[in-house]
Write a structure and sequence with these properties.
The structure is a homotetramer. Chain A starts with 7 loop residues before the first helix and ends with a helix. Chain A contains 3 helices and 4 strands. By secondary structure, chain A is of the alpha+beta class.
Chain lengths: 94, 94, 94, 94
Amino acid sequence: MSLTKLTEVEIAAAIAQLAGWSVINGKLHKKFQFKDFVAAFGFMGQVAIVAEKMDHHPELFNVYNRVTIDLTTHDVGGISRLDVELAQKIDSLI
Amino acid sequence: MSLTKLTEVEIAAAIAQLAGWSVINGKLHKKFQFKDFVAAFGFMGQVAIVAEKMDHHPELFNVYNRVTIDLTTHDVGGISRLDVELAQKIDSLI
Amino acid sequence: MSLTKLTEVEIAAAIAQLAGWSVINGKLHKKFQFKDFVAAFGFMGQVAIVAEKMDHHPELFNVYNRVTIDLTTHDVGGISRLDVELAQKIDSLI
Amino acid sequence: MSLTKLTEVEIAAAIAQLAGWSVINGKLHKKFQFKDFVAAFGFMGQVAIVAEKMDHHPELFNVYNRVTIDLTTHDVGGISRLDVELAQKIDSLI
C-alpha cells in the first residue's frame, strides 16, 4: 500500500480514535507526563524501539518527567497512516 | 555508615519485607516477566538509571520478556544494605 | 557551594572550554548528529543516566539521527555551574 | 528463505568472519567490556533496538562495564543465520 498524505477528514477520523492526540503545526501531537525522569526515560526507550522497528521516527522532546511527541511523515509532506499507527503503538506502551 | 555484610538473620528480615526476592548463591535474586521484549527493556533502562545513581550495579540477565536480577556487594563479600535498598528501588519501578 | 546564576563573563569563559556549545535563548545549547537513530538513542540513554545521577536534567530533543540539548537551571533563572558540568559530562560520552 | 540449523562447518565459516565470537554451549558467544556502566548501557540499548527490529533476541548478561551476549535460535534448536546476522549487527554498533 503506497503511502499518502491523509486528508483532513481522515485525520479527524483517526484522532477521534486516539486519546489525547491533536494536530499542532500539521503534526500529530501529544504530551505525556510521568512520575519522574526515570519513568519518562523508560517510556522513551520503549518508544525508540517501536519507532525503529517501524522505520518511522517521532520528534521527541523531553524535560524531566514530561515527554512531547510530534508525528509527521516527511515523504508525503504531512500526516500519513504511519503516524496514526505509531501513535497507537505509543499509547499501547502505557 | 560503613558498609558491612548482613548476617543471615538480617537478610531474612530484609527479604520478609521484599516481594519475590530470595537468596540464591549468596545473592539477592528475583525474576521478572513482562508482556514482551519492549516492556522488559523499558524496565531495564530504568534499573540502569537507578543503579548508576546509587553507584551500585546489579547482575542483570535478559532474554526476550524475562529479566533476572542478582544483587551482591563485592566490597563486603556478601549482601549489604545497598543490595536491599536497590531491591526496594527496583520493585518501586513496577 | 550554593548555586548561583553565572554572569555573562563566566558563561563566556565556560563556553570557551566547551566544543560546539553556544548560548541560545539563555540556555547552553548544542546539536549532535549520529550515523543513525540507533546511535542517537544509545547516546540519549547515556545522557539520561548521567543527568539523573547529577539530579540535573536537560531539555532533550530528538528526531531520527539528530539530538539537540539545551541546559539551564530553573532554580537560579539562568545558566549555573551545573549546566557547565553536565555539558562536560555529555561531551565526554562521545 | 526458511530458517535452518547451521551445520558445524557453516558455523565455523561464519565465526571465521566474526571478531571475538565463539561457540559456547551451542550458542554464539561474545564478551564485551566498556569503560564504565554508562557506556555498557548505551551499548545494550542499541543492541535492544537492533534485536527487536530483527524479531530475534539475544541472551544478554550485564554486570557493571561488562556485557556478555549469547545467540541461538530456539525454533531450529541451534545456531541459525539469524544469529550470525545479529552478531554482525551487534559488532557494527561498536
